[in-house]
Amino acid sequence: MDDDGWDGAEGREVLRRAERATRWGWAAIAGVTGLLGFALVALVVGLLLVAVAMAYVVIAMTS
Predict the structure, then answer these.
(1) How far is it, in rounded angstroms, from Cα 52 to Cα 46?
(2) Where are the membrane-spanning stretches (predicted)?
(3) pTM for the model
(4) Nearest 10 degrees: CA dihedral of 29, 31, 32, 38?
(5) CA pair distance 53, 19, nearest whole angstrom
(6) 25-56 burial, b for 16+ CB within 10 Å, e for fewer?
(7) 3-class DSSP state of 43
(8) Cα distance between residue 10 and residue 45, in whole Å
């Protein structure tokens, strides 16, 4: 019999803690991805607003 020093209860506790850490890790990854996506959308909207404002100024100057 190969005894690696882990008993059943201790092994289950280690596995439970590892699964909890993995869940927290994926939640953090999802949160950061969501924030980056929101920032990207906000940047695109801001750039579109600047482009529209610049076009308005050009049209107003040429009229």
Answers:
(1) 10
(2) 26-59
(3) 0.65
(4) 140
(5) 51
(6) eeeeeeeeeeeeeeeeeeeeeeeeeeeeeeee
(7) helix
(8) 53
Short-list 42, 62, 39, 38, CA closest to 50: 42
Q: Both tokens of residue 49?
A: 């607003």
- Amino acid in position 38: F
pLDDT digits (tens, 9 = 90+) for 19-57: 999 999 999 999 999 999 999 999 999 999 999 999 999
Tally the C-alpha atoms within 13 A of residue 14's C-alpha that lie toward its C-beta.
Answer: 7
